[in-house]
Design a protein that fits this description.
The protein has about 160 residues and is mainly alpha-helical. Helix content is about 45%, strand content about 10%. The protein contains seven helices and three strands; from the N terminus they run βββααααααα. A three-stranded antiparallel sheet has the order 1-2-3. β2 and β3 form a beta hairpin. α2 packs across α7. The longest helix has 20 residues. The chain is globular, with a radius of gyration of 18 Å.
Length: about 160
């Protein structure tokens, strides 16, 4: 938390350049250490950095979708598709953010099949490429991002 009680994630690029990302708006503010009154507060809170841009964006989207979960506590596939479209609009690629062997399989698939390459989360959700279960990999990664976002923003007790 900053002194103005806005939840932020802080990225220190060098000794004189600090970048903050507001978790609420997912917007970006760039600050130089001598050019802002909040810089001292930001430097003090720099030890709380753990979220990647993807975790912040996907975690926020998943958390916002939580009230729309069904009786079985699962999101509908249309909700996942909407989140995937938002991530695609933000420029995130599944090959950069999926984890483990599914990411390796996807990278190999994209190399072997450049015309059918899966380059968006929307395509990954609907793909049946090469026997890779990308839908499950995307769901798992989005749930991990939501957990990380809640842990960082202090909502894990909810």
């Amino acid at each position: 938390m900053c002194c103005c009680s806005t939840p932020i994630a802080v990225v220190i690029h060098s000794l004189d350049f600090v970048e903050t990302r507001s978790i609420r708006s997912l917007g970006t503010t760039r600050l130089w250490s001598g050019g802002c009154q909040r810089a001292a507060c930001i430097w003090k809170s720099a030890l709380l950095i753990t979220l990647s841009d993807f975790d912040a964006a996907a975690g926020k989207l998943m958390s916002d979708a939580r009230p729309r979960r069904g009786e079985n506590n699962r999101l509908a596939s249309t909700e996942y598709e909407e989140i995937a479209r938002e991530l695609d609009r933000a420029g995130f690629k599944p090959v950069d953010h999926l984890e483990g062997k599914r990411r390796e399989h996807l990278a190999n698939w994209n190399k072997r099949n450049p015309r059918k390459a899966i380059k968006s989360f929307t395509a990954a959700l609907s793909s049946k490429a090469g026997g890779i279960n990308l839908r499950r990999a995307v769901h798992r990664r989005l749930n991990r991002a939501e957990s990380a976002w809640k842990r960082q923003s202090g909502l894990s007790a909810l």
